[in-house]
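Researcher: Next entry: Cobalamin adenosyltransferase (Comamonas avium).
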Amino acid sequence: MGNRLSQIATRTGDDGSTGLGDNTRVSKSTARPHAMGDVDELNSHIGLLLCEALPDGVRAVLVDVQHELFNLGGEISIPGYELLKDDALLRLDEALAHYNAQLPRLLEFILPAGTRAASQAHVCRTVARRAERSVVALQEVETMRAAPRQYLNRLSDLMFVLARVLNRVDGGDDVYWKSDRLAKLQEGA
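Model: Predicted structure:
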């Protein structure tokens, strides 16, 4: 494949519009560019998480997710186009089942805290939720497949589970919210 990006500073967006993958231009304030930007931000945060020391299996899942998010972003940028394949959601479900099976049952809500890697996974979770909301907003004004929304929903669940996994890498644990309910449970133990 030839070089696709020959010039980065085109100045074509100076008027407040952005180009889509089908060569149409839309206002940067519309739903599609918002969704594209949130997916791009999510992918960037996952890239930051990949800078941390991670178990090999987690790293492999996240690298795969980055590629799928690029596909998802491409699909959003080209109205009516399909880039995100059904097996992408299946791989997320498999990873979710695999990592969730290793974790103890939650006693209470947990805080988005712990190790730096776990905390970054929580940031990815929250950005995934925002990206999902942006895709939902886009789907309210334009016809679009359900797969992008479903992928982001499942990815946010996976990032929650991976945050819990990453807090346990060196024998750590979840950081529980200090609630009255948890205090009573611990008193009775």
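Model: Note for the record: The first strand starts at residue 17 and ends at 19.
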